[in-house]
Amino acid sequence: MHGFDDVDVSDHDLVAPEHVQRALTAGELVFADGATQVFEADGGNTYVENGRPTRGEWYVDDDGHFGSFWRPSYRARYDLRWMLEDGAIVGLRFTELGRGSQFDGRYRV
User: Which residues are CB-neighbours of 5 under 8 A, at least 6 positions away?
Assistant: First the structure.
């Protein structure tokens, strides 16, 4: 993934709060099940699963965690961690706080 040459991180490092927006909006993320997600700088996002798009919202909370909101009432918070291969950032690992569910999104290249 291009655009992270100035970010000095290792695989599995937490994404620092000041890098969350940049990490999320760097490009389309592709998940293991083929679903995709695009995060927009204005806080909107689109998740596409089986060809069906769903619109949501994202934010960074006061603790520096990534949060998402899906209407009508689903809200979740996540730790974001960098995924690196051969020293290059290739995606993000999402771990839901309180539930522990984890999923990896790889930047589409």
Answer: none
Cβ atoms of residues 100 and 37 within 8 Å = no
CATH number of the domain that residue 86 is part of: 2.40.128.640
Phi, psi of 9 (to 5 degrees): -140, 165
Q: Model's pTM, two decimal places?
A: 0.91
Q: Which amino acid is present at 75?
A: R
Cα–Cα distance measured from residue 66 to residue 56, given in angstroms and rounded to the nearest whole number? 13
Render each residue's pLDDT in the chain as its tens digit; 109 residues.
557 888 899 999 999 999 999 999 999 999 999 999 999 999 999 999 999 999 999 999 998 899 999 999 999 999 999 999 999 999 999 999 998 899 999 999 8
* Per-residue CA distances from 88 to 38, 96, 100 (Å): 20, 24, 26
39 belongs to a structural domain: yes
